[in-house]
């Protein structure tokens, strides 16, 4: 797929893409080395971020033991909110500011790693909360300098937050998710130990798997980097650069791994599934960290932000929520049917990597073939049937559209322009699939 005609230069478009590769350690037993890694990064007093459930699990015990045996001073913050909000980001930042830490270790899913990134940012360079948040919702003020060192230890495999300069939260007053996107908030090291995944509830595994798939598939089908307007200067080149030859390689292999492992990993897992899925999540993270996602993620921020009465099995039940991976994948079939004609071969290859039988199929039907393949796998893994399965009806179409249309960074990164009316029709098409 690399250097395909997809990347033919368009007048006014960029001619350059940059590759930001995170530093990663991968393998069973890697958590036992976190103490040495923290010392190597110059930490002496460490803030350990986690959530109320993960704090009781083995990964946190392993990290604490490793920090102790390396002689490091640390304090644990176990109050991270699952699917964090501006309020919970501020609470995490307060802990960081008061504790006088010189380094951070996060142990948990995307909620924990993102909260830790934000806490490091706001405690290192205090500012009005919206200053660092994406424009147009926030002011996207540049981060003034380097942050304190951060080691991110994921206990899920979907978000790849350990690879990205992204921290996502729910802005409560807007009833929509948004984020802070800046390469300076990326962790200095990601430590991926696949054994941590064995305690994940089945639906969380499914949601993570589809989050990975969607990161990879959105990156492959994103607008090519050569069609994004060239920036005025190097530092203005965005992190979400569009599809590029580097992200293509990582993302196609990631879809292959998800396609071969996700159904078994949800229904009847074996150890080998966890290694494959964690690696797939990391590959897609490197890919979408450079290419950027588009419509399924842009729409998901409204689906998650407006959650009314859906309480899925496997997540905390204290408030209704549409967890991230589910809020994304319920949109994906509708989106890929629509975007298929813009780059059908890319959709067709993604369907093949996901396991679709392409015998007697036509490349120009790539979008529909991919959508059908996703729908089949959603059914096999217990994912709800579209937006109606997570509590929405056609009466919510305007509210959903209003809250996702401002996600310019994502909507503009799709392979075709999408009007507000088209976005509303995508939500309508995503209401139910079977
Ligand atoms: N920063 C990024 O690049 C990025 C990308 C995508 C999504 N996100 C964000 O990440 C968040 C979602 O993160 P997530 O999907 O990783 O899940 P999560 O952190 O929200 O955790 C989901 C649930 O699983 C539990 N859990 C975590 N690890 C476990 C384990 N090993 N065993 C048992 N239970 C475990 C948690 O306690 C929680 O109840 C959302 O807020 C989403 O918007 C961030
Ligand atoms: Fe995601």
UniProtKB/TrEMBL annotation:
<dbReference type="GO" id="GO:0004022">
    <property type="term" value="F:alcohol dehydrogenase (NAD+) activity"/>
</dbReference>
<comment type="similarity">
    <text>Belongs to the iron-containing alcohol dehydrogenase family. Hydroxyacid-oxoacid transhydrogenase subfamily.</text>
</comment>
<keyword id="KW-0496">Mitochondrion</keyword>
<keyword id="KW-0560">Oxidoreductase</keyword>
<keyword id="KW-0809">Transit peptide</keyword>
<dbReference type="InterPro" id="IPR001670">
    <property type="entry name" value="ADH_Fe/GldA"/>
</dbReference>
<protein>
    <recommendedName>
        <fullName>hydroxyacid-oxoacid transhydrogenase</fullName>
        <ecNumber>1.1.99.24</ecNumber>
    </recommendedName>
</protein>
<dbReference type="Pfam" id="PF00465">
    <property type="entry name" value="Fe-ADH"/>
</dbReference>
<dbReference type="Pfam" id="PF25137">
    <property type="entry name" value="ADH_Fe_C"/>
</dbReference>
<dbReference type="GO" id="GO:0047988">
    <property type="term" value="F:hydroxyacid-oxoacid transhydrogenase activity"/>
</dbReference>
<dbReference type="InterPro" id="IPR042157">
    <property type="entry name" value="HOT"/>
</dbReference>
<dbReference type="InterPro" id="IPR039697">
    <property type="entry name" value="Alcohol_dehydrogenase_Fe"/>
</dbReference>
<dbReference type="GO" id="GO:0046872">
    <property type="term" value="F:metal ion binding"/>
</dbReference>
<dbReference type="InterPro" id="IPR056798">
    <property type="entry name" value="ADH_Fe_C"/>
</dbReference>
<dbReference type="GO" id="GO:0005739">
    <property type="term" value="C:mitochondrion"/>
</dbReference>
<feature type="domain" description="Fe-containing alcohol dehydrogenase-like C-terminal">
    <location>
        <begin position="240"/>
        <end position="431"/>
    </location>
</feature>
<feature type="domain" description="Alcohol dehydrogenase iron-type/glycerol dehydrogenase GldA">
    <location>
        <begin position="22"/>
        <end position="194"/>
    </location>
</feature>
